[in-house]
Amino acid sequence: MAEEHHRKTILDGGWLAARSTEVQFTGTQLTTTHPPTSPNPPWIEAVVPGTVLATLVKNKIVPDPFYGLQNEAIIDIADSGRDFYTFWFFTTFHCNLSTTNQYCDLNFRGINYSADVYLNGHKTVLPKGMFRRHSIDVTDILHPDGNNLLAVLVHPPDHPGTIPPEGGQGGDHEIGKDVTTQYVEGWDWMTPIRDRNTGIWDEVSISVTGPVKIIDPHLVSSFFDNYERAYLHATTELENRSSWSAECSLTVQVTLELEDNICLVEHLQTQNLSIPAESRVQYTFPELFFYKPDLWWPNGMGKQTLYSVVISIDVKGFGESDSWSHLFGFRKIESQIDNATGGRLFKVNGEPVFIRGANWILSDGLLRLSKKRYNTDIKFHADMNFNMIRCWGGGLTERPEFYHYCDYYGLLVWQEFWITGDVDGRGDPVSNPQGPLDHDLFLFCARDTVKLLRNHPSLALWVGGNEQTPPDDINAALKIDLRLHPDFESVVDNTKSVGDLSPVLRDPSPKDPSQYLDGTRIYVQGSMWDGFADGMGNFTDGPYEIQNPEDFFKDSFYNYGFNPEVGSVGMPVASTIRATMPSAGWQIPVFKKLPDGYVEEVPNPIWEYHKYIPYSKPNKVHDQIQLYGTTVKDLDDFCLKAQLVNYIQYRALLEGWTSRMWSKYTGVLIWKSQNPWTGLRGQFYDHLLDQTAGFYGCRCAAEPIHVQLNLATYFIEVVNTTSEELSNVAIEASVWDLEGTCPYYKVHENLSVLPKEAASIVEMRYPKSTNPKPVYFLLLKLYNMSDHRIISRNFYWLHLPGGDYKLLEPYREKKIPLKITSKVSVVESAYNIQVLVTNTSKSPPDSKFPTIEHSSISTDSACRTGKEHETGLFKRIHRCFAGKTDGLKVSEINGNDVGVAFFLHLSVHASKTEYKEGEDTRILPVHYSDNYFSLVPGESMSVNISFEVPPSVTPRVSLDGWNYDGRQQTIVEIL
After folding, report:
1. Is 72 a catalytic residue?
2. Does residue 574 or residue 490 have the better pLDDT?
3. 919: number of CA atoms within 13 Å, CB side?
4. Three-state DSSP state, 945
5. Which of 185, 401, 565, 717 is catalytic?
6. 467 a catalytic residue
7. Of 266, 416, 467, 717, which is the active-site residue?
8. CA quadruple 197, 203, 206, 210: dihedral positive or negative?
């Protein structure tokens, strides 16, 4: 993982919990004479790390608050009082110090909100604050036999607040008086968390060291000579807890893992020093020189190279006293306000980065956080070709595990502190602009958080708050604490031309950059200041609702260079609705036609409770679901049409932004990528980890090199976000009608696109041709002329101006023949399935593009191919994605029609002999290289599918689609 003390033991199992008012013993008694021994009342199995509510849900003492309306059945802390959610947590652990001069610390990485800790009868009071670490020296109170009893009484936030009947952003805003998460009183995307996340919510551990302990090392890289020369700077605190002066040798080792687990030692340096008795000192290593190190790049720009840095200390007469390690990326992040757009511009290793990313709250509203879930979450963002995640100020400063996966997958992180405009200055009632009551506590938590996270290469910037700046004294202190080292100050030289920025704070005597709290990345005071939104803090982010897709391309859509929040719909598939709601929640919205012709969607109460965003906006956007037919039959029909809209909506959003890359915009962050509960808005995957079609619309639109249609001008554009010129390429544009013919086919050859450029190439003139069809499909392919390798593929379904997609409704009756070839590999519980789906229908002889049956595409860049004869095509693809033809399985879907196999959707299920009605058989999460795809006649798509299942589960892969009977059929059965 990202950071480890090598003698640390995590205490994450065997915990018990009980409500404090139901426990008759004191903490001293619990950890001496009367320890609980099993989950007998009032004691229950506890979730640690976790919260009180997560523990109650696990034990089914309260219902799942994320299912239907069940959250309403759980008493809120405002009604119960704080004692109701004040809980004991109890466990035992073994630690027997084997030699003298060993020391043991009990560590809490996060408690909400304060706690009394009892160990073997000894009490320690932990101070308040959700975002601070606690470390207790327990050396002298460990039991000689090594068996230790630990009880922790956890108190809720001091100001949990009440929930106004009308809800609102952050409830009554009382929660803002404490240094804790603010979303827990509810938001327009979240219902209240009843215990306000009270609990031991982050890692608990014990660590054993010798006389000298390593504390919070800081690693910094600096570059010279156009990145040929690099230096690693390292500073650490060292604490000698012994009563004698320690003669030490301090070693830093830097290694790079090569293939086959072979590590190359890049540096090994040892320094001798003496540390006085019972003292803490700061030590800075002589800088380490690297010639042309492998750099860390954001997703889509290069590799995410990570070096292992190990710092260890030996004490004379004792041996190794402590050791610490971290995965470190050599990279330089610069940021300035762009003169051309007024938006904030980021550079990594000297290269401009066009930001396309998402806003993030947290994985789970009950703080059931895990490495496995983080891995899935962050990989999903990388799969969408995003390059930044913004950690919103009303949620968490995310955990090191989150940052580890952002390091690994290349997601830059915008990290906010715990301030929001709604709770800290705006809202109804108007909230307190002075933030938390204890400003010193806020700053302590902020500084401790910086020390926890600053070594991660993915961390790009600190931001004071969401749509608000911290109170003046906190803001001023953060500016000083997070001031840039003089070696990095040049990155803000251009910020003086736009916005109200403070002058650069210069250090009169420059120190080694690793001696700063964090001097290499910028601090911005708020999410709408200094190059974000209008740069001056006015409410200029958003909008957050359904849009006409073409509007995203219009100059009038958004007026500023970098939008930190723009959001839209997020309806999941029908299976998720059935899995998260009772049957009353399966009712689709009522479509209420208004006098002006617009339709208002009226959702059922359960959807409304789950914060549903409609697919219509009266007086602005006609209902996008009914574009596909005014009669919506049932939940399955509604959710399928919602996926069509999801795909179009989010692809258009990102394509509209990239269409004006650098000319108007420097970046955009979508509100938001997911919901921390079973919400029905603004998400690319649901809380069960199933992707919506919007996920794949984003994946398409955000690819580093992309061909697209400007929906406002109908010009074909090519976006090149890479640092290499695109030359000797061609665009193939083909239109397909609902009869399966190709009435329009154009090839534009010998094209070049400069690096970091969005180029308008040529108008797609089919809508202006004689007798264009009212509904048609457009397939764009950008390919290399030298080998016909497809670089980008983009498929649209379109209607003429002023029209709709109603003709697609009878198109569902088409029976398009498909051929599916699959290859399965299994390693323990991990499955990798490669599926080749081919539309085997033939285009009619009179089509303008008679050779389309010979074209193919593959999402695997190693086997992308252009036009070939069918026999050679299958041999080539099979050889490419399967390695050999042994083990290939072929299934066919019969059909006599010719046309586009539209909106095909793969899913993975558990194979069962009997199914209960409404039972959710999906295996989740699953990573697909593509999904919700369409194939023109003769075209193939190779999709890679990867997932894990327990040994007792046998998976199968199913396929459904718009014109494929509207049902699922198993195409890969694993025997």
Report:
1. no
2. 574
3. 10
4. strand
5. 565
6. yes
7. 467
8. negative
